[in-house]
Please model this.
Amino acid sequence: MLKAMVEGATLPVIVIDGDGRIIFANKSSEEFTEYSRQELLGLNVRDLCAPYEPGRYIFSTLPEIKKTTEVDIDLRRKSGRVFMASVSFSPFDHRGSRRLLLTLRDVTTNRVQEGKTREAEERYRKLLDDRNMLQDQLNRSSKLAFMGELAAGIAHEINNPLGIILGFVQDILEEIPEDHPLAESIKIIEQETARCVGVVKELLDFARLRPPQRRRVDMLQLLEDSVALLMPGIKKNKVRIIKAYANGVPNIEIDPDLIRQVFLNVMINAIQAMPYGGELGLDIDLVRCRQSQQGQDYVRATISDTGRGIHEEDLDRVFDPFFTTKGTKGTGLGLSVCQRIMDDHRGRIEIESRRGVGTTCRIYSPV
Ligand SMILES: Nc1ncnc2c1ncn2[C@@H]1O[C@H](COP(=O)(O)OP(=O)(O)OP(=O)(O)O)[C@@H](O)[C@H]1O
Ligand SMILES: [Mg+2]
Model:
């Protein structure tokens, strides 16, 4: 009965000895391997494998296998066709000799299916990533909007009293003789108050950036003009400029003064990150972006440097207003202003960086 069962089973079953020699094969294994039973009985299990498989660890331990072990092995049919199989090795002893019962399953279709599932999974993960990125952008924008309002509120409240103080101080200066013992002190009060007025004005500019006044502009030319303004710093830091401008980039409607400000802020950061020289990469090309509304084209300016890079934990904060690693040398407003400007243009700004390798900033302006 056992013999009839094994013989009639749809599962290919093979029995081998400790050296891998085939000593039994059922009917299904004939179909499966394309060898006849006679042929199978003269073969070693290694002969059923793809040429690169016999070196596998499992074949060196056949006599020592203690419990059923299932492995994926590439098998080769008599016709030479290689396919993926799952082979289970079940050990048993027969009259004092080691035997292994092998069952074979073709898993090619399973694995291909798994591959497809993985692909779908990756696509899904990508979608999630995109969603998270949009959420991040949204968070950033609302944080900025809040900071903007706060700054505007404070600036407004301080602006008036400062103006009044300045007016009175100037009155006093006009009234008193130049050699008055307090004249010097009052002049200092005037200077410092004027400085405060300047700071507040900057803050107001930041808080209430004017809406873009769009003109049709050649981005290549705009970038060229911007970098020309920075030549002194570029020379001083011994920075080499490497340009890659794509052909056929259309002129687009932007506010050139505002976008120039973005280019300047980003390039200044890049130059500051390379105090001992390096490469400033300037690329402009046209991209179609799938994250946005159907088929929106963007002109992308890519500004890269080979400078010190940004710590991973700081990367999320570089767009925050007042985030700076430059101590008193930076206000930390550069990139947040850039982001506001790009938001107002319905564009985007992205930063990618590796510590010690460099930083790449991509600026997308919609066509
Ligand atoms: N190209 C870059 N390489 C290395 N770090 C950078 C780069 N660009 C930005 N950063 C980091 O991001 C921070 C914020 O940049 P941001 O331009 O907003 O402010 P800042 O340069 O510090 O000051 P500000 O631009 O107001 O003078 C910087 O302090 C720096 O740590
Ligand atoms: Mg800066």
